[in-house]
Amino acid sequence: DTGVSQDPRHKITKRGQNVTFRCDPISEHNRLYWYRQTLGQGPEFLTYFQNEAQLEKSRLLSDRFSAERPKGSFSTLEIQRTEQGDSAMYLCASSSPSGGDTDTQYFGPGTRLTVL
Amino acid sequence: QQQVKQSPQSLIVQKGGISIINCAYENTAFDYFPWYQQFPGKGPALLIAIRPDVSEKKEGRFTISFNKSAKQFSLHIMDSQPGDSATYFCAASNQAGTALIFGKGTTLSVSS
Q1: A48, B99: Cβ pair inside 8 Å?
Q2: Is the CB of residue A1 less than 8 Å away from at least one CB of chain B?
Q3: How close does chain A come to B63, measured CA to CA in Å?
Q4: How far apart are the C-alpha atoms of B6 and B19, rounded to whole Å?
Q5: Contact: B96, A4; criterion CB under 8 Å
Q6: Cα separation, A32 vs A14, whole angstroms
Q7: How many CA atoms lie within 13 A of A83 on its CB side?
Q8: Residue A103 and residue B46: Cβ atoms within 8 Å?
């Protein structure tokens, strides 16, 4: 299976700690997206990359959040000084503008973050 | 400001029945409208998508109806099966490959 993969799948941390999540997109997909989903809600857009360039950031992405995609392949999302309100499922998606439906975003299984 | 409004919040349908979920949007610049299906503990998976140049798109048991003037679109699931029990999200975007704006979701239960 060469779908979007995310690591870890679950993360429990204490308030104030830093956490980092990794996303590996579908091979050759040059667009990568991060979303956050809280219980009972739809995914909310955080940011997206085209290759290594971060093209858009949501207002939800506070200064404590930083995302990188250094070589245009995998991406990391870091949350510094976690707060209980950061508890959510963090979803990664990827898409490709080359051929097919350029809009189709394929989602990974997500990383469930619990901040105690 | 919620840009995509989805209803109902939950839906119970008998096996073999038709499930209908509705969405309304505000931004007339939206030009791509996908529906995603999500099972517990999994990421959303694309079900079907439509662009505003057509009024209907059908794939198997799933049909999207689109009304551009009313700024509404809906998902119809024909011959609903217990395996269709999941949460469904409508979404929209206004430029290819950019941020998707999701509705709040509809939890569908198909009783056998």
Answers
A1: yes
A2: no
A3: 17
A4: 14
A5: no
A6: 28
A7: 5
A8: no
DSSP strands (E only) in chain A: 5-7, 10-13, 19-24, 31-37, 44-50, 53-57, 65-68, 75-79, 88-95, 106-107, 111-115
B4 contacts: CB under 8 Å, gap ≥ 6: B23, B24, B25, B26, B90, B91, B92, B101, B102, B103
The answer on pLDDT for A100 being more than 60 is no
User: What's the confidence (pLDDT) of residue A2?
Assistant: 78
Asked if A40 and B105 come within 8 Å (Cβ–Cβ), the reply is yes
pLDDT tens track for B38-90 = 999 899 999 999 988 899 999 999 999 999 999 999 999 999 999 999 999 99
Scan for tokens 């990359």, then name that residue: A49
User: What torsion do the CA atoms of A107, A104, B6, B105 make, to the nearest 10 degrees?
Assistant: -10
